[in-house]
Amino acid sequence: MPLQIITSVEEMQNYSSVLRAKGKTIGFVPTMGYLHEGHAALIRHSCLEADITIVSVFVNPTQFGPNEDFSRYPRDFERDCHVAEEAGAAIMYAPTVEEMYPNGYSSMVLAGKESQVFDGVSRPGHFNGVVTVVAKLFNAVKPHIAVFGQKDYQQTLVIKRLVKDLDFDIRIIIAPTERELNGLARSSRNVYLSEHDRENASLIYKALTAAVDARQQGEKNAHSLQAIMQKILMTIPHVHIEYAQAVHADTLMETLDFSDDNSIVFLVAIRLGTTRLIDNFVWHP
Ligand code: PAF
Predict the structure, then answer these.
(1) 113-152 burial, b for 16+ CB within 10 Å, e for fewer?
(2) Which of 123, 148, 175 is a domain's end point?
């Protein structure tokens, strides 16, 4: 079936209501476009779980800070449609900014407690923008399931909190991070990196795996685990390390020493020039 493009909220809602009335299950993959293999994997995952998969492409202005890359965020709608269709999506929902935030728009959803650390500190207002747009997209697409990538680990916790606290009847699936051959997590923002930067950025993966290995071998002290990541990240030329931390995986709370049964998330955010890169690994006992 050729990909169908829908751009209005009303048409999207009507389309989804018809699907639901026919007893079809709807899977949803929200994106900001410039789709890559990571997104294709999320779409394929959704296709396995639901009858119809809807992908959205919307570069959401309310989740970008004033000095961030909203206007230069990479866009290629034609290619996005091709990637989405190839991966098995049936519908591309691509509303305009005016459709999502028309004149007079003035409501926002407040992100929950998981939003108050890490990227919530370095990107003030970011998660309120994310949960607002995700809530709006959910209300337009009316999915049964929604698939998000683990690469944005904090975002996955914030979205699970949104769904729980606001009683969205949607099952959230977190799909594993897709990586390039050198370990670099796939991201639309990788397009900003030179070949050389991409090689250097693969040290993020090395830092994360070194910390996971250390935990596997019995290291439980958060500072020691962090020092292992810092040491490797510091070898990247001109790097600015925003954070490289080991925290509780379900709450993002810091601790001095983990206990045997703690699940840990290793979180990294660095800047290479003007490009901000994030990645993570979750370790379970
Ligand atoms: O992860 C993203 O691409 C965005 O934050 C999302 C969830 C599509 C909301 O704009």
Answers:
(1) ebbebbbbeebebbbbbbbbbbbbbbebbbbbbbbbbbbb
(2) 175
Evaluate whether residue 39 is within a structural domain: yes
Radius of gyration for the chain, computed over Cα atoms and rounded to the nearest angstrom: 19
**Would the pTM of this model clear 0.90, i.e. be above it?**
yes
pLDDT in tens, 143-181: 999 999 999 999 999 999 999 999 999 999 999 999 999
Q: Which residue, judged by its Cα, is nearest atom 8 of ligand 1?
A: 31
Q: How far apart are CA 123 and CA 115, in angstroms?
A: 10
Report residues whose beta carbon is within 6 angstroms of any ligand 1 atom.
Answer: 30-32, 60, 63, 130, 133-134, 152, 155
Q: For residue 224, what are the contacts with CB-CB under 8 A and spacing of at least 6?
A: 214
- Which residue, chain included where needed, has tokens 């607002």? 132
CA–CA distance, 39 with 41 (Å, rounded to integer)? 5
